[in-house]
Amino acid sequence: MSTDTAPLTDLRVPQEVVDLVFRDARTVNTFAEGEVTDEQVRAVWDVVRWGPTAMNSLPLRLLLVRSPEGRERLVAHMNEGNKAKTQRAPLSVVVAADLDFHEQLHRLAPHVPGARDNFAGVADVRARWSRDNAFLQAGYLIVGLRAAGLHVGPMTGFDAPGLDADLLAGSGWRSLMVLNVGTMPADADGTPASHPRQGRLDFEDVARTI
Ligand SMILES: Cc1cc2nc3c(=O)[nH]c(=O)nc-3n(C[C@H](O)[C@H](O)[C@H](O)COP(=O)(O)O)c2cc1C
């Protein structure tokens, strides 16, 4: 295990970009005052939507929660330790997977004839597929938000069935994660996280070559 953050060599993007989105980025739960606008999130979406998904299915859906009423409803479903963080975030994004993603496949995957109909009768396959691929897209989204200079606190500690029955009622959307999003407080001194950076597994821990 390592806390080493040696810079990449042979980069095709400036080192600062890698630092911004990975090496220096921390999970943040205390943000500066000030709104994160729909336009900021739209600009991030317009980039991260190009990240690959199986059959170009793009099952990720986003519920942006900014109003005091929306926030109260969201906080009610968060685990106790996540309530205050969510209460004070400028924007919270409910990241969801759309069980009915196949209804868009005529637009997204015209190269796969019959794709929509093949998924229509297999709800269990759609549930797994949408969850896998929306989680993948959630990763792209976190990196994209960071690239836009925003800070993110991802959370899965909430009552997902309760949230779905309330905020996502009447849709095929199923919540996966809540992202608190904002900018760094001016007095954060470069250390916005609540605890020291923990180590990461080394290449030898995670990879095998055959
Ligand atoms: C999918 C996911 C779920 C998480 N759930 C929670 C959570 O419910 N509550 C919380 O305080 N932090 C949560 N975290 C934050 C992680 O603990 C944190 O990202 C990790 O320890 C790395 O911290 P660092 O980015 O500061 O290095 C979650 C992170 C991810 C990516």
TrEMBL record:
GO terms for molecular function: oxidoreductase activity. InterPro entries: Nitroreductase (IPR029479), Nitroreductase-like (IPR000415), Nitroreductase_HadB/RutE (IPR050461). Residues 26-182 form the Nitroreductase domain. It comes from the Bacteria. Transmembrane segments: none annotated. This is Nitroreductase family protein.
